[in-house]
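S1.2 Input.
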Amino acid sequence: MARRALKLASWTSAALAASGFCLYSNKYLDPSDFGAVRVGRAVATTAVISYDYLTSLRSVPYGSEEYLQLRSKIQDLFVSFDDTPLGAASLAQVHKAVLRDGRTVAVKVQHPKVQAQSSKDILLMEVLVLAVKQLFPEFEFMWLVDEAKKNLPLELDFLNEGRNAEKVAQMLKHFDFLKVPRIYWELSTKRVLLMEFLDGGQVNDRDYMERNKIDVNEISRHLGKMYSEMIFVNGFVHCDPHPGNVLVRKRPDTGKAEIVLLDHGLYQVLTDEFRLDYCHLWQSLIWTDMEKVKKYSQRLGAGELYPLFACMLTARSWDSVNKGIGQASVTATEDTEIRNNAATYLPQISQLLNHVPRQMLLIFKTNDLLRGIEVALGTRARASSFLSMSRCCIRALAAHKKKNTCSFFRRTQISFREAFSLWQINLHELILCVKELRLATWVLALLRRLLPTSY
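S1.3 Output.
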């Protein structure tokens, strides 16, 4: 316990307090390590760092009660069962097995004693955060403890994870590029989850995609569509899209690229008020309506720190936000500027995170992980991703307006405006494609002139 407390203390202290000082000493840091972080990540992901370690009991002996019971019935349940786990995470590990009826399954087994230790570790975390508060009064991080208390019990219940998986699969069934593992309820408990076994390469593995002839731009577009639908339309958001939970593969039947979404333990349910304000904010950011950026940032709790809030959401500089986040890609100069300014704004970031709705905290984490994937794939800040977000915002706002009117004429009017707005986006996207094609043709012609025709 003392050893774990020491490690947790060091992680929490480093994340909460020392992150600013580390940012000043850039000689220890590779800029690419903070590429997706930009303004505010050092503090915005403090909850993730502390929470992940909080639930990481790696020194606990292998095997839980349910797992041992399952192991004793191996001959009855399985034709084969791999003792070596496919992967081990903070709460559980996953084994591949084959059922008697021939189905290949993934068996997720919770680490032993996680349930018993969780309350003690949350208490320890609360003490450490209070200690940091005494040392650095300008930092407010009790929301860390509040989020851990709320989310940890949900993640410890694998039946809840199974329900989340089925819910998101139903919500996004119109996406033929998405696959969510089927849950086998008859063999699942709160601490053992059996599901359909699905393989593939991690979403950030460009080499895997090249070997399997999977278009990285297509995968990035699919990922953007999927998460835009979750956030803006459904308000039910998978909040742990790290590469180990997002696989890509060719569909066995059609050969088309497919995204496999795993680990459904942590979801954020957005209220309609939050979701619609967030829609308006992103619409304003995409179309550079700075008055509405200020209005909806303040509605989401940013107050006078709305420029910082906009920078944290977009991972862009305030200058880029004012010019239009879809107008130009991120440059190395902008990366350096944001990283160098991050430490300066740590107290303001702390204040901001303490005032935004709690729903925003996991959205920050989700956005950051998605940007990390885009950076790995080399597809970050493409105009097409912003257009996909805008489409979802238009649809979500129109659906809300139609839901709240009984007038047939008014509903028809809203539908017409929705269709017209979507047509405008399609036209804009077509113009961008033509421009890119012309640019590519021009570059190709230039290369032909510059390069020798024979050797």
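S1.4 Remarks. The longest strand covers residues 92-99.
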